[in-house]
Amino acid sequence: MMIQFVIVALLSFNILTNSNAYEDVVEEESNNTLKRITNIDDNCVDAICKDFKFENITEVAFFDLKAEVRIKDESTYDIVARKNDKTLTFVNSTFAHFPLNMFYTFDLEELDLRHCSIESVTWECFVMADKLTILLLSNNKIKTIDRFTFNYASELQFLFLDENNIHTLHSETFKGLTKLKYLDLSKNSLKDLPDNIFQCLPKLFDIKLQNNQLTNISNEMFANNSQLQTIALARNDLSDMDEYAFNSQQDLILLLISHNPKLEAIVLNLRANNLVATNCSLNRVNIYGAIENADFSDNRITELYFTEPEKLETLNLRNNNLEQIASLTRATNLRTLNLSNNPSLGPQTWPEYWIANSLERLDLSNTSLTNLPIDALATQTNLRTLNLSYNNLTAIDPLSFRYLKNLHHLYINANNWNCFNLNMIMNVLILPNGISTTTDDYDPDFPGEYIHGIACMYRADNEIENEVMNSSEGMNSSNEDSKIQKSEQLKASSLTEQKEIEKLRNELKAIVRFYEQKFDTAFAMINDLNARLSEFERLNKTLWQHVTISV
């Protein structure tokens, strides 16, 4: 036992000697003053340490807990040099410099130094940190991190550096972290990163770089991070991303690049489960690879191309400038498609025939529709939700929905409905089949009516065409001579009564036509019933003939 005591004592002396040497270096090179912490009993309880105050930039906290010697008997000694705490969290504490000698004192696996106003972190701080796996340095004041800073923390797997003031990282800042899985650098001031900065992190699967000032992502930046599953680059100043920047990741789950207002085009070769690029300035998207779920809402996209559209399952293109969607006709597995708020995407831009028939939810609200793209919808036999609100629809033939047998939700509010047709749609299509719909906000000054909560106007079938023609004539006549305008006004006033009479006639015709359709339906049902009765009478007659023969 005496031999063990001597060996341990020598080791302890060596540690203290190294500590004194390190103290001299610090004092000589940086003129910082070491502030020794020799007792933590008053500050640390149950892995929680509080009320350490080292706010002066020239003061460096130095954990220097003396080795405890316990005498059991005349020949037996216990020497306790390191605390056995695996986890340590500092609260209500301030360290301008990351504390020194901490990993000599504590046998740490997880260290939480968030909100400690740390400004400086150096490689000396992590000597003997070979068991550290989780390090939280979020919400501090770190500005730069030099090369080899974490070299001695070789077991580190989770590193949180978010919400600091970091603006500079060295190409070898993360050297030695071969087991690092998670790296959070979000909410800093990073503008440029060395191309090979993450090359030494082969196990990295999640990286957070959002809320910085990055301008470019090169092909080399993530070339050696084949296991990456999540890459977050939202809210930067990205204006360019190289085509093969994410080509090395074969199991990429999420690529997040939203809120980059300078990004005008995406031309990427990648495979990912989810791609989110909302609120940029995109006008062109070319994806050479496979994407399952993509969100490009709130951009300016006019051109869209996928080399493997059959891999798409969800696609959000809300609020863009789309003029055509021909590249989606082969999206045979697309279940959800949102094309709302694309005012240039009228019915004339729709492809005549879609190979895809997997759509379950389709949003066509505010796409300037005046009639249904029935040729495209006819193949969507699995469609459950169809949003046609906020368009210029006046009438729909209920027979157009004979292919949509699985339709459960039909949103048709905020259109320019003819009340005759709307009433027919409600009574023939929506109400009998239990299809849910949305309603308009009630306006007491609306000159028309509300049928089941949806606004409409009674008008003849050709009234809309006449309105369009009249508005066109009004525009053309705006440049004519004033005398001609007065003459036209006199003619118009002289024909007022005739127009009113003609309008009444047209409305009466429309009403007659409406009830004729009702009667046609009733007569068709009667004819069908007569045919069934005739068949029954024939069968009955044949049966009685057989009965007679048997007798």
Please supply descriptive tags for the structure shown above.
disordered N terminus; 17-stranded mixed beta sheet; 551 residues; elongated; disordered C terminus; three-stranded parallel beta sheet; alpha/beta; 7 helices
The N- to C-terminal Cα distance equals 122 Å
Structural class: alpha/beta
Can you give the mean pLDDT? 82
Basic shape: elongated
Beta-strand fraction estimate: 15-25%
Question: Unreliable stretches, pLDDT < 50, 5 or more residues?
Answer: 1-29, 463-484, 547-551
Q: For the report, how would you describe the main beta sheet?
A: 17 strands, mixed
Rg, Å, rounded: 38 Å
Number of helices: 7
Q: Into which percent range does the helicity of residues fall?
A: 10-25%
E-strand count: 33
Description:
By secondary structure, the chain is α/β, with parallel strands linked by helices. It contains 7 helices and 33 strands. It has helices at residues 2-30, 102-105, 374-377, 419-430, 463-477, 482-494, 496-550; strands at 33-37, 44-45, 48-50, 53-54, 59-63, 68-73, 76-80, 87-91, 94-95, 110-112, 134-136, 144-145, 158-160, 168-169, 182-184, 206-208, 216-217, 230-232, 240-241, 252-256, 265-268, 271-276, 284-287, 290-295, 303-306, 314-316, 336-338, 361-363, 385-387, 409-411, 417-418, 449-451, 454-457. The protein has a 17-stranded mixed sheet, with no helix packed on it. The protein has a 3-stranded parallel sheet with strand order 21-23-25, with no helix packed on it. Strands 31-33-32 form a 3-stranded mixed sheet, covered by helices on one side. A hairpin with a 2-residue loop joins strand 32 (449-451) and strand 33.
